[in-house]
Amino acid sequence: MKKLISFLIRYIPRKYLQRISGIGLKVLGVFYAGNAVTCPICDHHYKKFLPYGRINPRSNALCPHCQSLERHRLIWLYLKEQTNFFNVPLQVLHIAPEACFMQRFEAQHGKGYITADLESPLAKVKMDIHQMPFNANQFDVVLCNHVLEHVADDIQSMREIYRVLKPGGWALMQVPFFSPVPDKTFEDNSITDPKERERLFGQDDHVRKFGKDYTERINHSGLKAEANTFASTLSADEIQRYGLEGKEVLYLGRK
User: Which of 43, 124, 195, 240 has its CA 20 to 30 A from that of 78?
Assistant: First the structure.
């Protein structure tokens, strides 16, 4: 199973996987029936989650029903327990929208919920994050997870997020960190060989390897960075039950 999932992720473009993966994963979920883990997003129960990852797939990672990963389940719990996201209708921009969130977020925020991406078939608006087609001070919340490692200029992209956020608004901007995490973010556009890019950046479609200076880069965009340790407040039982990575930090930028 790990080898199959690794092959699919590495060699089938994401935009196609997004179209075809849902039904197949739900079929696989029948063989994982149980009560050891629960997805807090879709409330389905399994003996364990599916493995997920490009090179060395992580065990107990992918929900067969809604396709959530560890980070998505942590984000859901954070939004539910630490914010007003599910209490009032908000103006929300969701960049590179994850399938596990979309219907649920739209049900909460209605027409105020806008999905956007350069090429995703799931998004309502096709756009370049470097120059977004939205008014200044338009959104209460921007969700932009595992995007900034792909774009030509991450700081310009965050400047755009700053521009479209309302004063007092906030953005959640997760990025991958690969061990060993460098002190400074590393990028080199002269490296074009896919295997070398994968070795240096974690994936061949990444253009940088984020370092310990990520909060500094957020601040440089005009946003006020926050490294939120909500995950560390969860109990060992919650970490196990929801299939989380207990040490993951949530990175926010506030305007």
Answer: 124
What is the per-residue pLDDT across 99-149, written as a single tens digit (0 to 9) for each?
Answer: 999 999 999 999 999 999 998 888 999 999 999 999 999 999 999 999 999
**Based on the domain organization, do 60 and 76 belong to the same domain?**
no
Single out the residue in 68, 92, 108 at which a domain terminates: 68
Structure tokens that stand for 72 in this block:
């998505």
Is the CB of residue 78 less than 8 Å from the CB of residue 66? no
Domain count, the chain: 2
Beta bridge partners, 94, equal 115, 143
Amino acid at 111: K
Greatest Cα pair distance in the chain = 49
Angle subtended by helix axes 99-109 and 70-82, to nearest 10: 20
Sheet containing strand 165-172, edge to edge, reads 125-126, 113-117, 92-95, 139-144, 165-172, 250-254, 224-228
